Amino acid sequence: MQQVRVAETQLEKEQAFDVRRTVFTEEQGVSPDIEFDESDDSATHFVGYDLQQPIAAGRLRSLEQGIGKAERVCVLPEYRGHGIGAMMMEAMEEEARQQGIHLLRLNAQTHAMAFYEHLGYQTASEEFMDAGIPHKTMEKEL
To answer: Which residues are 134's β-sheet partners?
Structure first.
């Protein structure tokens, strides 16, 4: 059974960081110096599980009054395409609403844009490079 929850304990945060490390630094070659930053201290972290196994992660930050940003959203390769990514985004959107956020923004890797479009996000920028990977900013009114 898959589920997503807010990472409330240090162990849950470390599990989220482990998933991010596997996907972004090991699979995609992003430097750990870029992947892990000062925003990790203040962000709301999420971890997705298959039974007790951590398989997905993400973080939510408030940018300014009413505007938030979903970041570091990832799913382990063997679990992609089975709904946990959508569950992650639903959990992040619900938490954003509870925090008074009405516009959620994210920087999508261009290969993942169809996933976010399916969830109601719209492109809000031209393509740009981040950590050597092409991205576009996307937004959704909550």
So the answer is: 129
pTM here is 0.95
Task: Print the domain residue range for 39.
Answer: 2-141
Residue 12 belongs to domain with CATH number: 3.40.630.30
Quick check: helix, strand or coil at residue 103? strand
- Residues 127 and 87: their CA atoms lie apart, in Å, by 26
Question: In sequence order, what are the beta bridge partners of 109?
Answer: 135
**Contact by Cβ (8 Å): 58, 29:** no
For residue 74, give the amino acid letter. Answer: C
* Total of domains in the chain: 1
pLDDT tens by residue, 36-77: 999 999 999 999 999 999 999 999 999 999 999 999 999 999
Please answer whether residues 88 and 49 qualify as being in contact, where contact means their C-beta atoms are separated by less than 8 angstroms. no
Selection from 85, 88, 89, 126 nearest residue 104 by Cα: 89
**Amino acid at site 19:** V
- Give the phi and the psi of residue 46 in degrees, each rounded to 5: -125, 145
Q: What pLDDT digit, counting tens, does each position of 92-104 carry? A: 999 999 999 999 9
